[in-house]
Amino acid sequence: MDTNKKNRELISALCDGELPDADQELALAALDTPDGEQAWARFHQIGDVLRAAPAPDLSPGFAEGLAARLAAETLPGKRPAAPDAAGAAPQFDQTVAGPT
């Protein structure tokens, strides 16, 4: 078995309070690695999401109404360049100079 996978399983069991006493030392050693720290944080984040209150129900037709409003939005276009004092639009040099 892959060591990282086994470590993540130990950490998961520790988070869930289901770790056998015989594996406690292995789980604590697994937590002392970057992968273990990341797994610990990830498992706790997953638990937080699972325990969170469900989102309120949306009103009927909400998704369709939102889609219609988004479809009616005008897409932003390019803004015209502001003219200079003489009334001419500024010209930009688009060449890219690299290190010489």
Automatic annotation (TrEMBL):
All copies of domain Anti sigma-E protein RseA N-terminal, residue ranges:
8-84
Q: Which species is the source of this protein?
A: Telluria antibiotica
List the CDD domains.
Answer: RseA_N
- Fetch the InterPro entries from UniProt: Anti-sigma_E_RseA_N, Anti-sigma_E_RseA_N_sf
- Compositional bias segments (type: Low complexity): 80-90
Which residue stretches belong to region Disordered? 74-100
Q: What is this protein called?
A: Sigma-E factor negative regulatory protein
One Pfam family, short name: RseA_N
